[in-house]
Amino acid sequence: MSRPSAAARRSTTSPPGSNDGDVLYAKHKKVYPRGIDGRFSRLRLLGMTVLLGLFYSVAWLSWDGRQAVLLDLPARKFYIFGLTFWPQDFFFFAWLLVIAALSLFFFTALAGRLWCGYACPQTVWTELFLWIERKVEGSRNQQIKRDKAGWTAEKVRVKTVKHALWIALSLFTGFTFVGYFTPIRELSVSLTQLSLGPWETFWVLFYGFATYGNAGWLREQVCIYMCPYARFQSAMFDQDTLVISYDAERGEPRGPRKRGVDPAGLGLGDCVDCTLCVQVCPTGIDIRDGLQYQCIGCAACIDACDEVMDKMGYPRGLIRYTTENAMAGLKTRLLRPRIIMYMVVLTALTAGLVWGISQRVPLELDIIRDRNVLYRETSEGLVENVYTLKLINMDDHPHPFALQVDGLEGLKLKLESPLIEVPAGEVRSLPVSVRVDPVVLTRPSTTISFTLRAVDKPDLSRTETARFLGPVTR
Fold it and tell me: Which CATH class is domain 363-469?
């Protein structure tokens, strides 16, 4: 790829709207992205529809008489469809975060900022807010003209309608978000009865305000100034990474001309300098200045340029997804060691996570040995150790459990009752004592095992080990 021009270098070191690379601060200039239709814009629309549809609808789904996805923090239970997770399962969440991070690295190394352009919440909600803005205020030119004009009754009406819709959508977004932590149907009843609790009210307003501010006002500034991903993405790029690039060799020198005129006869390239690629850019950059960290990879400039090329009768692809090697006339390798490594690691981690969840037993058994007394001798001449067992039934149904101890010949378990009843989602502490004839003790410390098994569900069991202390008699 050719060396970026001075304008490109300036655009990567100074804020949009700055005319000098030495300027430390430039007043923000509002970006008015122009609407465009094309294959990539339709992909973005599809992604926005699917992601927002899932976000707003999943909270209302039911599963076995309860909300399908509910993160019940007070009860420390996390319901994900048919699964119930507890704080003890937090490592699954950490595992999932590792997979998500590696997935981001994988897709970035493969095709640049796909996440930013198509799936990032900031991009998705900004696209929705822009769609509302265009429906209410009109096209890009109409918006610019209205903002430059003075305040009139019509301008106040249009702005009021737009912001009212933005605020309503933001509050509904905050309400839906809180609905994943408080059952959304109960939340709806409380809202209609004006009896929302203080914390629910705070978080609905907080997330509503965050949505309104980020998607309605900050927009591209979040991507350029606040998001750390824009700063370290280049560390994941290489010369075979697919990025959006302008073909300067084909497009330069740029200049206007009439349709049907041979650009070679005028000494021009294929770029007609219409600036549509700049007008549709949600971050306000000029892709013709070279690859810049402000580019979120949305490909709107590709759709705009292809549309112009079609009208002019030129081949598409003046702006396209390509690689540095391809631009330099070299062979591009999409499957390279880095990509293969990411694929192998991601496959292994994902398979491991699925296997771990499928093999997960919703039962915990913690054994705490009485540390006040090492051991004691009973009136029958037996050696006794005392333990406290903590049983956690993480299943959605209550179960009667039987306890068994093994590890030494003739072990006797003393319980208050042969069956231990533990309700669903409850924790029970149980004192137990284990006795054995001292003649079987061959060393001062022996490993024994406790097995807890549900009587009505034998596959629901857990085995943990403990130490049995006593005198050595032989």
Answer: mainly beta
Q: What angle do CA 34, 138, 302 make, to 5 degrees?
A: 15
Smallest CA-to-CA distance from 263 within 313, 320, 301, 316 is with: 313
Other C-beta atoms lying within 10 Å of the C-beta of residue 441: 20
Report the amino acid identity of residue 437: D
**What is the tens place of the pLDDT at every residue in 275-289?**
999 999 999 999 999
- Residue closest to 254 by CA, chosen among 318, 327, 325, 323: 318
What is the rounded average pLDDT of the residues 446-458?
94
Amino acid at 386: V
Q: How far apart are CA 422 and CA 398, in angstroms?
A: 6
Question: Cα 149 to the chain's mean position, in Å?
Answer: 41
* Threshold 0.90, pTM exceeds: no
Under 8 Å between Cβ of 30 and 275: no
Domains of the chain: which residue ranges? Answer: 363-469
Residue 71 CB burial class (10 angstroms; 0-12, 13-18, ≥19): middle
The predicted-structure confidence for 297-333, as pLDDT tens digits, reads as follows 999 999 999 999 999 999 999 999 999 999 999 999 9
With CA atoms as reference, report the closest residue to 110 among 431, 400, 334.
334
Task: Check: CB of residue 362 under 8 Å from CB of residue 393.
Answer: yes
Q: What is the 3-state secondary structure (H, E, C) of the chain?
A: CCCCCHHHHHHHHCCCCCCCCCCCCCCCCCCCCCCCCCHHHHHHHHHHHHHHHHHHHHCCCEECCEECEEEECCCCEEEECCEEECHHHHHHHHHHHHHHHHHHHHHHHHHCCHHHHHHCHHHHHHHHHHHHHHHHHCCHHHHHHHHHCCCCHHHHHHHHHHHHHHHHHHHHHHHHHHCCCCCHHHHHHHHHCCCCCHHHHHHHHHHHHHHHHHHHHHCHHHHHHHCCHHHHHHHHCCCCCCEEEECHHHHCCCCCCCCCCCHHHHCCCCCCCCCHHHHCCCCCCCHHHCCCCCCCCCCHHHHHHHHHHHHHCCCCCCEEEECHHHHCCCCCCCCCHHHHHHHHHHHHHHHHHHHHHHCCCCEEEEEEECCCCCCEECCCCCEEEEEEEEEEECCCCCEEEEEEEECCCCCEEECCCCEEEECCCCEEEEEEEEEECHHHCCCCEEEEEEEEEECCCCCCEEEEEEEEECCCCC
Please tell me whether the peptide bond between 253 and the residue prior to it is cis, using omega within 30 degrees of 0: yes
